[in-house]
């Protein structure tokens, strides 16, 4: 019989609706798993156990006809995301004791949807790197092999979901920060089109690069959480595309995108870097499955090339200049100080020139792939990276190695297109390998439907690492005898 954490997020909510489980039982079960495994995988900076149980009691008291698809389900909030009354460190010792007075819009939406946060997940300092190894929490480790990083900046969120500490988690993505951890940890990580998810109530929009989004084990779970996050908010700097009829969950359940033209490429875009054969093999497998599903898969040139890197690099340096109290600057990590020092030398003129040239390159790239409904490429240039592989280096070398490890994802933050990492491949050692599927701006529906179709063709992606069973059910006092629904 399945344990509660074996159920997907939607199945957990369904068990609550059928009266087989309460939200309090689910939250208590997952909190015990957090206590047992949270530090091992480096998932959480702050655990809010008492607050979570109180929220679960409130969720159980809501009338059945007022409950949404994820009502009562445990989740977690990335530590870059403002959460009123809860320590939010932004992954940094410089903010180790910061407690925001307001919720980010996405936190408010999740609370109103009846989701129950267990705490704040580990992130890279100020979201600056693609690994989550700082001073305020243990490093985020890949539950499939603890010697490897869970990635960043949503690394703790991915570690929590892949280890069965929560079924879905909120994250954000400014240069691959959802999709990189998803690829490493065998999850679905979804970056929606620019404007779909509010970044409010604070912030400048950060040139349109970052957006909030969901991480989960299945496309339907991810689509359900996206429906929660994707609520229009007046005053946002980017106009949200129209939502699909019935929501993203209905689109994922239908899994019927129609016949598409899908452009395939493996050439890295931000670096002239050899691509690991396992990453190419994962793309080949995805291409074959998509072709077997009736789509036309064609080889296309990469939309952009390494010439885009100096421009993106300039923008990333400036984005590292988040407000930090001057007296706390020495508490920042060497990489963060390096990025901020570079950013401080960039004036308004060079920044505007870089943004303008980036947009010009995006326009040229779109013309290169005109006629394609979706693009298919690797998520990363290599399947995995050990913990410490980047942070042990000189900051300049660290940053350059990150570029070479992840030369695909960030381009689609520049374009604003929806993009998802899907766990299609495996290494010989059984570690996950992701592929990146990217849609046209504003057409999240086609991307989600195709991702769900590919998931079905792969036989499902809700697979678990050995650590999933490392905690004996008797030790966590879990509720047993809860089965998956028969259909």
UniProtKB/TrEMBL annotation:
What are this entry's molecular-function GO terms? catalytic activity
Please give the Pfam families that the UniProt record associates with this protein.
Amidase
**Amidase domain sequence ranges:** 25-447
What superkingdom heads the lineage? Answer: Bacteria
What the entry lists under InterPro entries is as follows: Amidase, Amidase_CS, Amidase_dom, AS_sf
Q: Return the similarity comment.
A: Belongs to the amidase family.
Task: Please name the PANTHER family in this protein's record.
Answer: GLUTAMYL-TRNA(GLN) AMIDOTRANSFERASE SUBUNIT A, MITOCHONDRIAL, TRANSAMIDASE
Name of this protein: Amidase
**Organism field:** Micromonospora auratinigra
């Amino acid at each position: 019989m399945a344990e509660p954490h074996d159920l997907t997020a939607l199945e957990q909510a369904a068990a609550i609706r059928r009266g087989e489980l309460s939200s309090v039982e689910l939250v208590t079960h997952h909190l015990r798993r957090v206590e047992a495994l949270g530090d091992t995988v480096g998932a959480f900076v702050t655990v809010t156990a008492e607050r979570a149980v109180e929220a679960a009691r409130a969720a159980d008291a809501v009338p059945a006809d007022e409950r949404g698809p994820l009502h009562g389900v445990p989740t977690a909030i990335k530590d870059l995301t403002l959460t009123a009354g809860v320590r939010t460190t932004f992954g940094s010792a410089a903010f180790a004791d910061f407690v925001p007075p307001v919720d980010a819009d996405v936190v408010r939406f999740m609370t109103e949807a009846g989701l129950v946060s267990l705490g704040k997940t580990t992130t890279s300092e100020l979201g600056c790197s693609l690994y989550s190894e700082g001073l305020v929490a243990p490093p985020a480790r890949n539950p499939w092999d603890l010697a490897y990083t869970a990635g960043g900046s949503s690394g703790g969120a991915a570690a929590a979901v892949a280890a069965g500490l929560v079924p879905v988690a909120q994250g954000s993505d400014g240069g691959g920060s959802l999709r990189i951890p998803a690829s490493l940890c065998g999850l679905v990580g979804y970056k929606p089109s620019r404007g779909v998810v509010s970044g409010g109530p604070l912030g400048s929009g950060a040139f349109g690069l970052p957006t909030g989004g969901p991480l989960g084990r299945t496309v339907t779970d991810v689509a359900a959480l996206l429906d929660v996050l994707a609520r229009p908010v007046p005053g946002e700097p980017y106009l949200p595309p129209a939502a699909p009829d019935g929501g993203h969950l209905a689109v994922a359940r239908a899994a019927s995108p129609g016949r598409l033209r899908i452009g395939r490429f493996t050439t890295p875009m931000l670096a002239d870097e050899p691509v690991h054969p396992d990453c190419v093999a994962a793309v080949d497998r995805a291409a074959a499955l998509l072709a077997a599903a009736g789509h036309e898969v064609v080889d296309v040139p990469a939309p952009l090339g390494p010439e885009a890197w100096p421009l993106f690099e300039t923008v990333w340096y400036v984005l590292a200049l988040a407000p930090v109290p001057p007296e706390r600057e020495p508490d920042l990590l060497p990489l963060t100080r390096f990025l901020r020092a570079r950013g401080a030398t960039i004036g308004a003129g060079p920044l505007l020139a870089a943004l303008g040239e980036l947009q010009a390159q995006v326009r040229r790239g779109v013309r290169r792939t005109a006629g394609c409904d979706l693009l298919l490429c690797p998520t990363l240039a290599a399947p995995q990276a050990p913990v410490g592989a980047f942070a042990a280096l000189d900051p300049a070398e660290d940053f350059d190695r990150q570029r070479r490890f992840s030369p695909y994802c960030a381009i689609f933050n520049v374009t604003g297109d929806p993009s998802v990492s899907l766990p299609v491949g495996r290494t010989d050692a059984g570690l996950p390998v992701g592929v990146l599927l990217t849609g046209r701006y504003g057409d999240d529906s086609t991307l989600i439907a195709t991702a769900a179709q590919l998931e079905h063709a792969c036989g499902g992606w809700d697979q678990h690492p050995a650590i999933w069973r490392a905690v004996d059910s008797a030790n966590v006092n879990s509720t047993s005898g809860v089965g998956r629904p028969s259909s």
